[in-house]
Amino acid sequence: MLVLEEMDMDVFNKESVRSYRQRMRLSRPGHVWEALEDEDFLLKLGAVGIGSDGKKHPTSAGLLMFGNEYDIVREFNTYFLDYQEQYDADTRWTDRIISSSGDWSGNVYDFYFRVYNKLIQDIKVPFKMEGGARVDDTSVHQALREALANCLVNADYYGRQGLVIIKKRDTITMSNPGSFRIEIDAAKSGGVSDPRNGTMLKMFNLIDIGERAGSGIPNIFRVWREQGWVMPTFTEQLEPERTILSLTFEKIGDKKSAIKTSDKKSAINAKMKETIMAYLTDHAEAKASPIAEYIGLKPSRTRDYLNELIAEGIVVAEGGNRNRSYKLKS
What we know:
Layout: H1 14-27, H2 38-45, E1 48-50, E2 56-58, H3 60-66, H4 69-75, E3 81-85, E4 95-98, H5 108-119, E5 128-130, E6 133-135, H6 139-153, E7 163-167, E8 171-177, H7 184-189, H8 198-205, H9 216-227, E9 233-237, E10 242-248, H10 263-282, H11 288-295, H12 299-311, E11 315-318, E12 325-328
Parallel strand pairs: 3-7
Antiparallel strand pairs: 1-2, 3-4, 5-6, 7-8, 8-10, 9-10, 11-12
């Protein structure tokens, strides 16, 4: 946990801290930290640490969660949070929230709730009835909370480019700087968790958001499977490193889908996959670059095909991002 000794306690947005404490009281009534003063509460939470000077200073996690944007960028120079609604093809966006606007704190905590409330608007999920009462908080809403928290706590805020969430009529994409710290297949399987910002995840956990035990991502896939929607996809990019989660709200095979794949395109995709499989048949294992050169595509597009083959259980990936290799599943 990095203690930012050049900063003092004034970097915290008081309204963000007040809001968080109120949410925690509702989630965990009677918690032992409830009676603490703000500074001592933030110390227990991991938002504050004791520096070498013996004084209290914000931690990197505390600054990101509860700081003001103009102080956050002093430590994280490329920090930028961006939410866009793109409903109209004739305009770049129809609604937008950015951390640098200056009319709100710009921190991760406030961004989460501003964006989550936008994400759940007009989601095509029927409500449930329990004991004669309408229940609007469905498994889809829970999965969206997991996806948003996962994006925010796994972002590399020292990395290049910002965090971008785009909502269209039938899709949501969440893109954060930084690569997966574990294999994507392991993340999908569950039981393995290695968040980049563990203290931030703890902060979300205490207000009942996010899963520490590695069940968040499997839960997202389970919910989409239960809904019969096109399965989510994770894509990793290099230079700069980014992780992109794509969520589609359309039934598999739905001809009314806003995202249609023509028969010709499907045939091309199938041919590309067959060519990759043929290459891996002749080569015990290979990285994305030589495969891309062989099939005549860019490495990023080739990795998309490889990720699809992994999801289909045909190919497995081994090694870290820069040394990742692929081979046919035995």
